[in-house]
């Protein structure tokens, strides 16, 4: 059944609610968890589920995403009909970009038809979770379903942001509503609803028929949740597949997050720092694959003040150096440098961020290639921060990629951040001399 399955990953969304992290990159390409990109979770699920014929439909600001997939995911053998291929809009049906989730696939209908596959797995490239799609595919085939939708239980209030379904005793879906104002509740579970995860498995013939029918409707938004699924429920066999339980080979942590906002993204990163993280990244036969450059190991060293570098309950990627500073409850991506007597708390620092001497960061997301000048404080004065940066509803401050502060780093901040024999200095410090 796996060899008869084509997988399509939808990765073309704008991601405007995640700005400024999506200022120069697509949402699935946003870094996560110290070393990954968001799309790595979906692609890793495909890898371990045995799905190795994958089309990634891209669109907005896709260069970073294309590069990441090229560098990190060119691992399949095309001679065995295995591939991960990025597919930008090709204007196969008129001069337009992808106009909705269903339209994105409709515009590439010829790729589906020539694949000779019997089943199509449709996934989003911007969710954080681990799942064995093979178990869902097995259930889809056993039910002789035209469509199977992965679902999870959420609170009624949360359900307003999802597609919500009602099922019978055999898990056949009776009704589906996209982001309803008044979500239906589960029987015998007041306040709980059954929500779609945006993971679909179609019978190929049923999907092609549905897409062709939808393409001719002028009033359609060409969206799976709003247009395709409700019509299929009326006259086809559509089933729900519960997320978690005993299905599949992956350990069931039942963690799923749509990191579509700054606060959701920040909280999902912070979840990894809990004593027992709700998302298990350490299952040896289901590790998340990514592309990682070859940097030296992370380390803490004394600073020029004589203080020891300290990292407490934090994730530090390769190439990170904490020199006489304190890092606590934070995630530091590759080649981050934190200089003497600086403090970083509850923050996410992306690649190559430099935190100057005596600087203080609290509840921040600092995008890559930012140099924080000596003595700078971010996350302590909302009024001051709001004049310069984006602040989320929960008060997380986001400094955009490559931001240059008006205040130039002091001479003191230009000193090497570690002892000279380690030969590691700030690149800007070298140029300043």
From TrEMBL:
One BP annotation, GO: glycogen biosynthetic process
Stored SUPFAM superfamilies: Nucleotide-diphospho-sugar transferases (SSF53448), Trimeric LpxA-like enzymes (SSF51161)
UniProt key word Glycoprotein: no
Enzyme Commission number: 2.7.7.27
Chain residues that bind alpha-D-glucose 1-phosphate: 98, 163, 178-179, 196
Catalyzed reactions per annotation: alpha-D-glucose 1-phosphate + ATP + H(+) = ADP-alpha-D-glucose + diphosphate
GO molecular function annotation: ATP binding; glucose-1-phosphate adenylyltransferase activity
Glucose-1-phosphate adenylyltransferase/Bifunctional protein GlmU-like C-terminal hexapeptide domain: residues covered: 296-399
Pathway(s) served: Glycan biosynthesis; glycogen biosynthesis
Alphabetized UniProt keyword annotations: ATP-binding, Carbohydrate metabolism, Glycogen biosynthesis, Glycogen metabolism, Nucleotide-binding, Nucleotidyltransferase, Transferase
Gene3D superfamilies linked to this entry: Hexapeptide repeat proteins, Spore Coat Polysaccharide Biosynthesis Protein SpsA, Chain A
PROSITE patterns listed in its UniProt record: ADP_GLC_PYROPHOSPH_1, ADP_GLC_PYROPHOSPH_2, ADP_GLC_PYROPHOSPH_3
Pfam families: Hexapep_GlmU (PF24894), NTP_transferase (PF00483)
Nucleotidyl transferase domain residues: 7-273
Quaternary structure, from the entry: Homotetramer.
Family: Belongs to the bacterial/plant glucose-1-phosphate adenylyltransferase family.
Function description: Involved in the biosynthesis of ADP-glucose, a building block required for the elongation reactions to produce glycogen. Catalyzes the reaction between ATP and alpha-D-glucose 1-phosphate (G1P) to produce pyrophosphate and ADP-Glc.
PANTHER family documented for this protein: GLUCOSE-1-PHOSPHATE ADENYLYLTRANSFERASE, GLUCOSE-1-PHOSPHATE ADENYLYLTRANSFERASE-RELATED
Record NCBIfam families: glgC (TIGR02091), PRK00725.1 (NF001947), PRK00844.1 (NF002023)
Protein name, UniProt field: Glucose-1-phosphate adenylyltransferase
């Amino acid at each position: 059944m796996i060899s008869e399955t084509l997988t399509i990953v939808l990765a073309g969304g704008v991601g405007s609610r995640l700005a400024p992290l999506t200022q120069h990159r697509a949402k699935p390409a946003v870094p996560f968890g110290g070393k990954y990109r968001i799309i790595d979770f979906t692609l890793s699920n495909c890898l371990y589920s045995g799905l190795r014929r994958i089309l990634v439909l891209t669109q907005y600001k896709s260069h970073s995403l294309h590069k990441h997939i090229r560098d990190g995911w060119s691992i399949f053998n095309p001679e065995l009909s295995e591939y991960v291929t990025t597919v930008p809009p090709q204007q196969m049906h008129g001069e337009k970009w992808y106009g909705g989730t269903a339209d994105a696939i409709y515009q590439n209908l010829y790729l589906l038809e020539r694949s000779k596959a019997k089943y199509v797995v449709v996934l989003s490239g911007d969710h954080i979770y681990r799942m064995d799609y093979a178990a869902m595919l097995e259930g889809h085939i056993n039910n002789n379903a035209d469509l199977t939708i992965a679902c999870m239980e959420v609170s009624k209030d949360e359900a307003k942001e999802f597609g919500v379904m009602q099922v019978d005793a055999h898990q056949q879906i009776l009704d589906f509503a996209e982001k309803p104002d008044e979500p239906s509740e589960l029987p015998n579970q007041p306040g709980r609803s059954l929500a779609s995860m945006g993971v679909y498995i179609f019978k190929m013939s049923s999907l092609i028929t549905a897409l062709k029918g939808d393409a001719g409707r002028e009033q359609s938004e060409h969206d799976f949740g709003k247009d395709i699924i409700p019509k299929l429920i009326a006259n086809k066999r559509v089933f729900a597949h519960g997320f978690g339980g005993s299905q599949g080979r992956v350990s069931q942590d039942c963690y799923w997050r749509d990191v579509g906002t700054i606060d959701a993204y920040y909280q999902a990163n912070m979840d990894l720092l809990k004593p027992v993280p709700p998302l298990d990244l350490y299952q040896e036969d289901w590790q998340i694959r990514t592309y990682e450059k070859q940097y030296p190991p992370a380390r803490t060293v004394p600073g020029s003040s004589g203080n020891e570098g300290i990292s407490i309950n934090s994730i530090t990627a390769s190439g990170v150096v904490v020199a006489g500073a304190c890092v606590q409850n934070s995630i530091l991506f590759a080649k981050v440098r934190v200089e003497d007597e600086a403090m970083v708390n509850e923050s996410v620092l992306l690649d190559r961020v430099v935190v100057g001497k005596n600087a203080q960061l609290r509840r921040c997301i600092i995008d890559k290639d930012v140099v924080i000048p000596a003595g700078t404080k971010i996350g302590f004065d909302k009024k001051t921060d709001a004049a310069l940066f984006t602040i989320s509803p929960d008060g997380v401050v986001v400094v955009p990629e490559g931001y240059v502060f008006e205040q130039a780093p002091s001479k003191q901040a230009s000193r090497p951040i570690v002892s000279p024999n380690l030969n590691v200095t700030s690149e800007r410090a070298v140029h300043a001399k």
